[in-house]
Amino acid sequence: MRLDHQFLQSTLHTTPAHPIVMGSLVGPVPFKAVEDDGDTVTALPERLWEEHAVLIAALPSYTFVGMSNTKLCLYQGFWIYEGLVPAAAALQRRFAPRQSDVVVASLPKSGTTWLVALAFATAARHVHPPSAADHPLRRLNPHQCIPFLEGLFAVGHEGKLDALPSPRLMNTHMPLAMVPGAVPASGSAAAGGCKVVYVCREPKAMVVSLWHYLRRVYPELSLAETVDIACEGTMPYGTFWDHILGYWRAAAAAPESVLFQRYEEMLRDPDESVRSLARFVGMPFSAAEEAAGVVRGIVQLCSLDSLRGMEANRTGYMDPRVMFPREALFRKGVADDWRSHMTPEMAHRVDGVVADKFRGTDLTFP
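Structure tokens predicted for Sulfotransferase (366 residues):
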């Protein structure tokens, strides 16, 4: 089997690698500054293309119902987009986090973009105050500010991460098992690893949001088919229950390494969610910042209405090869929208899977 390079090879550059010199900058800095520099990457060696092709050919696979050109492969128990299987393998072998790193993790359509924006605005607030007219989030999409780990590792571009000053922010949809270096096995920060912030969304709401997003490119995909995919465990990035429980158990075992947040709770009290995030990453807000309204400024800057109104989020695509429009990231941002779309039978089916798969845990959904 010959590996289709359309997803992977289209992003490769063949220029020699020259690291960006950030001088005395302190992170995080918008990743686009590194992403746009073509001299930071090299072409992936042909032997690695061959290894990828052999790996993918040996895996069980299926084509997404309603998305005839999207193929998923079963890799180490998780269904993953074919083009991202090399990323999963590379992350396990080569991901080397710094202790100051922060990885923002989630299943797709679980509040990812909002958390990415909040994390960047919080961690970068001393260099980029939320009130600043030239704040990166006022001219860039949140995902241009934080690198997408599997996108880089899939094509051998992870060297771009080395050009970023600490603390670095990163984003992933991968299950925790695919990013083993992020959380030390012992749960001790002294043993390595970094900080992981995970956002979890009520599964019915996540499924409906995923359906709305996917049908922007695949209009024939039905909600019933999306419910089937979720309940049968053939979602991209694996079963939603294994994905959620992987991070939830890590947070219970090592709360200093993993912060587990619920999207619905963030909606109810975004200010306290930002404070919790800042404390977790070791950058708590000072009394002076609180008095100056910095927390409220970050929440307002990163609100759905604010982000949706930015030019960078109204135009363009997340990835021109796949053609998901950026504006599709900003739909409603509310809880319980699933009630307007799911039939009672669909909701009962998802709830049944949740009751079964989360039995014996104290993890519940609003």
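The longest strand covers residues 195-200.
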